[in-house]
Structures
1.
Amino acid sequence: MRRSLLGSVALVLVATLTACGGGGDDNTEGPKNPSTTQTAAAEPPTAPKAGACYPLPFETAVAPTTEIEPVKCSARHTSETVAIGTIDAVVDGHLVAVDSDRVQAQVATACPQALIKYVGGSRERLRLSMIRPVWFTPTVKESDAGAEWYRCDAVLLAGTSTLAELTTSLKGVLDQSKVRDRYAMCGTAAPDAKNFERVLCSAKHTWRAIDVVVFDEGKYPGEKKVRAAGRTQCEDAAADRAEDPLVFEWGYEWPTREQWDMGQMFGRCWAPD
């Protein structure tokens, strides 16, 4: 989705103020009762609110902007706003472009962090779930009118390109051991199988993501190194779950260079479920 799942950009423009007067210049006597008309700039469009829910289709969730209206969170929806922020689009006193690296980096950093705080649990727990961050910014028209917000949403993947429908809030769900399993990541097969697909563990599955192999930020180490890095950790994680620690299966899904460049600097360990 945009950041592997989704990505977005933003535009901030300053609203202008126009005024017209009914008199002459300072050296010219005007009428006894001059009238001055001043037209204030239109108010910026109303910013979205944290906690709002939206019935987004997958195609909209991977887009940079959306004009879909919110619905009650008790109704069927696919995204929930976890945070609203203000875009910082000024560099050295100048506004940067809507698709600038500066704006994209700000939102792409802020929204995943906001998601962790909202859903609870740990970064590892989030990476082993199907909950993902998506973000939106104003349209060009809204930005021209003075909008300068960005919106961070949480979505729940049901498959490769499908969003799960929700009728309850995702706030704090990964803090709750009794409910977080319903959001966990499972697979239809081993991660190296041709028919492998990530699905919710509440769906039919045969494997489960059980641990995360974290790498230091920086240049991609190369496939040979990232592939070798998870062997011991994943084998040990699978052995801990196995009924027989001497006979068991395990799998490891390491980050590709493309995924690394998009911010996924970690791999996942898998085991039969």
Note: The two ends are 26 Å apart (CA to CA).
2.
Amino acid sequence: MIFDTIVAKTTANGMSAINLIRVSGSDSVAIVNQIFKGPNLNKQKSHTISYGHIHNNEEIIDEVLISIFKAPKSFTAEDVVEISCHGGNFIANEIIKLLIANGSRLAENGEFTKRAYLNKRLDLTEAESIMDMVNAKNMNQLKIANAQLRGDVYNLVESLQNQILEIVANIEVNIDYPEYDDALEITNEIIIPKTEELIVKIDKILREAQTGQIIRDGIKTVIVGKPNVGKSSLLNTLLKEDKAIVTDVSGTTRDLIEAELNLDGVILKLIDTAGIRVTDDIVERIGINKTKKAISEADLILLVLDQSEILTDMDKDLLSLTKDKPRILIGNKMDLGSKLNVIDEHVINISAKNNVGIDRLSSEVKKLFIDEKLLTSDYTLVSNTRHIGKLEEVKLALNQALKAAKDEMPIDMVEIDLRKAWTSLGEITGEFSVDDLISNLFSKFCLGK
């Protein structure tokens, strides 16, 4: 594809040592050369760096290094020029103005990566992984993003597509070329075990994707408990900062306090809530209602109990309120004694005030949400919510195909659902057109024989 030439600053706004300005398009080298004093860029080889100055015909703007990447060996698979200039917004903006005045235009959000996809430099999964890498906050997130950028998810999807394609292609040959003796005669008895095998594979991928999604997106975690039980102290201890106000006065926390914690490679999206109790305070009641809503929407509940007291009626109400949610019971104030009488459920004993026992929380979270063997092996983990949704569509279509086959429907009716599964897989990578299906289909059979 041939596009116009685009330009944008690839480094963040603000003060910095250097800025990087990227120009992509068939005219990128010629446009930059017009404002560059130094070696003639039109004569430079790909993957070379040239030293010189950016100018506006009247004066020097900046001393720069120019990197040239010629198509197709560049990020966008087009001619790309990268200008390394001094930091600060003013210099970069002046250079970008000159580039626009000489024939380029300002790139839209994500347009460089979009071109890389449209030029088949990346598939959709690889393109999406770039933002995952940028947003990574721990090594687990980075590892999953790198695997996706490397093409692991693409290869997984392609393998599944090829298995479906083999069934569809044989069905097509049976229908359209019954005289083709070398083709396997496809019947529902053959389709059923092949489809069941695919469903088993999809189920396994989806189960493992739960770990991948948790690593990528984090766990929405709500800290709940009665007033003055130590919820805010726990939040502050986990974050190692005074995020929430802590006093001995019940009802100090009246609104939700949100923060993010990297807990040994797992992101907890923490919400500290108002203590639940009966109160006439209008503001506190609003906070309590928000607490109840947060509980209903949470992935994980950290229910804080007072280790130094026996269970109160309010504690029992909270245990009942959260019983259907994934939760961890935390017995705080262990330094004041142990009277807590919770039956049939494990309690982590801590002292948030003295930072004792907090390290046990990580292992408990992982027991609930993470299959750690998947993080220490060569498993391909699907983590993107869009991909998981498409895999659910694939599973539904395969189950419909399986039902049709078991009901002894004509194989051309079964093929409709198999094609739908193939297309849904292709929507993960961006390769799903009917033309692609037909091309792949006919490449496997010598039908002109």
Note: The domain at 6-120 is CATH 3.30.1360.120 (Gyrase A; domain 2).
